[in-house]
Specification:
heterodimer, A: mainly alpha, Growth Hormone, Chain: A, 2 domains, 7 helices, globular, B: mainly beta, Dna Ligase, domain 1, OB fold (Dihydrolipoamide Acetyltransferase, E2P), 5-stranded antiparallel beta sheet, 5-stranded mixed β-barrel, 1 helix, disordered C terminus, DNA-directed RNA polymerase (chain B), single-stranded DNA binding (chain B)
Chain lengths: ~140, ~180
């Protein structure tokens, strides 16, 4: 399996297909799956009462509802807008949005790739990360 | 990690379905065939969110079935080695514990649990620190790092660790800091 032995999300080595793909935070997936679930419920009551969702869908829906940091759709949108201002890769953006680290130390431990690419270098870089995390916690406060 | 991607699939349709609702029949067959499946490359297909394009149907020689190339958008869950995510503990034993993150099962061996946590058997098996301040048991929420993935026919299985910094039991935000 070519490339599999090098796979490492910590270095953003996730394959070109996924690097270019749109990544979704748990809170965004919750909105999508809940909407789909309602659609299916409406549809099934009309015609086919046996149409069920797959176990994968159920488990995923339960998971994203439990681990969503932001419940309000406007807040979710704001989170993405805020994080997009810092030149992050999709995967990094979503990992930060999902885990909501408190300090720049935690953020760089959880997303080591932040420190590569010359974006958040040295103390100034740490300050930039702190500011980003502050902006995130403000959204949570006023959700 | 969840992704929103475009996938392609060749769908075969029996002539009995041809008619004014051909497209609908094709889409429901797609959903039934694909939602809930898993592949090593894309992970679990959680939900199809839309159909982008249905190409021209090609009649198969000899059978009368028609093959349509369908491009569709879907939400997939694909775990990556090195990824850090949160999961729910489902089972604890002396070898380690099992946790679930969405459709994926993750096993954390006791070798990758911090040394100061010991296994306690009993009605509710758990791992606890010597001072009893941190406990991992069924339904606990933990943050772990995936260190390996294995794909078989129908699912992806991962192994993880909680031994690194900032991993382990997630503190209840309602509890005092």
């Amino acid at each position: 399996m070519s490339g599999e032995e090098e796979e490492n999300a910590a270095e953003l080595k996730i394959g070109e297909e996924f690097l270019k793909a749109k990544c979704l935070m748990n809170c965004e997936v919750a909105i999508i799956l809940e909407h789909k679930y309602e659609q299916i419920q409406q549809h099934s009551s009309e015609s086919d009462p046996t149409s069920q969702v797959s176990q994968v869908f159920e488990k995923s829906l339960q998971y994203v509802k439990r681990f969503s940091r932001y419940k309000n759709p406007d807040a979710v949108r704001q989170v993405r807008e805020t994080l997009s201002r810092y030149g992050l890769a999709e995967f990094e953006l979503c990992t930060l949005g999902n885990l909501c680290p408190d300090t720049s130390g935690e953020a760089t431990a959880l997303v080591p790739s932040l420190k590569s690419g010359g974006r958040f270098v040295g103390d100034a870089g740490d300050e930039k990360i702190e500011k980003m995390l502050n902006d995130l916690s403000l959204i949570k406060k006023f959700e | 990690m969840f992704f929103h991607i475009v996938l392609e699939r060749n769908m075969q349709l029996h002539p009995r379905h041809f008619g004014p609702h051909l497209r609908d029949k094709l889409v429901s067959k797609l959903i039934k065939d694909v939602e809930g499946t898993c592949s090593g490359r894309h992970g679990f297909v959680v939900a199809i969110t839309g159909v982008e394009d249905i190409g021209k149907g090609l009649i198969r020689e000899g059978t009368g079935y028609v093959t349509f190339p369908v491009k569709y958008q879907c939400v997939v869950f694909r775990p990556f080695k090195g990824e850090i995510l949160e999961a729910v503990v489902t089972m604890v034993n002396k070898m380690g514990f099992f946790a679930e993150a969405g459709p994926v099962q993750i096993f954390v061996s006791n070798h990758l649990i911090p040394d100061d946590m010991e296994f306690q058997s009993g009605d509710v098996p758990n791992y606890t620190t010597s001072d009893g301040s941190v406990k991992i048991q069924k339904e606990s929420e933990v943050r772990l790092k995936i260190i390996g993935t294995r794909v078989d026919a129908t699912e992806i299985f991962c192994i993880g660790t909680i031994k690194d910094d900032f991993l382990g039991v997630i503190n209840d935000p309602g509890a005092a800091v």
